[in-house]
Amino acid sequence: MNKEEEILEELKKTNHLLEAQKDEVTPFQAVMDMVRSLLVGIFIVGPVLALILAFVNIIGD
User: Fold this and answer.
1) How many domains are there within the chain?
2) Which one-letter DSSP state was computed for residue 11?
3) pLDDT for 43
4) Distances in Å between the alpha carbon of 26 and those of 14, 34, 35, 50?
5) What is the phi/psi pair of residue 25, to 5°?
6) What's this model's pTM, rounded to 2 decimal places?
7) Mean pLDDT per segment of 10 residues, for the chain of length 61 residues?
8) How far apart are CA 30 and CA 22, in angstroms?
9) Residue 55's domain spans which residues?
């Protein structure tokens, strides 16, 4: 096999894998991922950021 044929075979395999993966993701799954990210931001990142800002404010006084 020459290089061009090898590259074409790899591209076909990659395309097949991408199509299979695309079929697995549903719109509902994408919405749930967005909601999960939002909740992580609200319940984890928000309080941690508030604590850091309060700590900096206390040190600044």
Assistant:
1) 1
2) H
3) 93
4) 20, 13, 15, 35
5) -85, 125
6) 0.48
7) 86 88 75 92 92 94 79
8) 12
9) 3-60
